[in-house]
Every structure is written in C-alpha cells, then in structure tokens.
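User: Before I run my own analysis I want an independent prediction to cross-check against. Here's the chain; please return only the structure tokens and, at the end, one sentence I can use as a sanity check.
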Amino acid sequence: MTILQYFSAQARNNAWANFRLLTSCQSLSKEELIAERTSFFPTILMTLNHNITVDWFYTSALEGKPLGINAFEPEYPFEDLASLFDAQRKSDAKLVKLVESWKPEDLSTLRTLRDDKPWREQTDRILMHLFQHQIHHRGQVHAMLSGTSVKPPQLDDFYLGNERDQAARKDDFAALGFSETDIWPQREWQDS
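Assistant: Structure tokens:
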C-alpha cells in the first residue's frame, strides 16, 4: 500500500465512521442532542458542530483556499442534526475526492491560516491530525450516546479486509457510494 492509498483509505474510513455515528444520532430527540453532558464540548450537537468546523478549517487549507478562523464563524453553525449531517457528508466526500486526486508530490507543504496569519505546514501531518481530531471527538460523542436512548454504534472495528467485516459495512458503503476495491488494493495472499 502506498502512502496515498493509505490516506485514501483513512479518508474513506473517516467518512464511514462519521456516517455511522450521525446515522445513530438521527434517532436522538432534540432534547437529547442539546442536553448538557460531561465532555470537552457540553452537548452532542456542539461536539458534532465542532467536528465539521475543524473539517472546514483543514480541508480548505488542503484545497489551497484556507478559511482560517472564518471556518469557525459561527462556532456552532448547525442547530439541527439533519443540516449538520448533510454538511458532514459533503465535507467528507470533498476530502475523499481531494486525497484521491493527489500525486506523491502533493504531500509537501501547504498554507494554513492560524489567527489569520499564514503558516506553512506539512500536508501529511495535517491529514494525520485531521483524522486523529475526528476520532477523538467521535469518541466523545460515542461516550455521550451511552447516556441517551440510542445505543452507540460500533466505530472501532469492521474496517479490516475479511469477509465478515465486509458484510458488516456493506449497507453503509452502498449508502456512501464506496466499494471495497476503492479502499483495498488487490493483493495476492500466500498461505504460510
């Protein structure tokens, strides 16, 4: 697997995990979405809003059009889950398409805006940070779901290449327009 195939697989895994989490959150009442809970951001909706604005911050930089702090204006742009879910799916699709359009030389440096001042940063490090950021806050929402009427979805498994895992994600991948061959390069396996 090349580094670009790895980042492509990570971008698709990120989109899939967001899809699974937000699909579960659709079953929450408005009261459950905005109820104060113990976490870095005090509600499920605020945490999900934070994830999308950070996506906008980094994806815009990866596109060469950094939004800087404008990505966080407003800090919590969505008051309802349906609009947020739509925006997250679009952002995830944009990231997948962007990563899959790159050539190795595109993994060099890029310009971000921090406090509206330009910074040079490594593209690969931005991607690793973006994926880690998403995992971190999805985990918080996952934990907050435990105190609601909705069972938290499985997010930390089922991305392996075996048939059992493929079957577990088949419907989600269909909804996202993903296929197994998009993610996993074909390999010849040898029994040892």
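Sanity check: The chain has one domain: 3-179.
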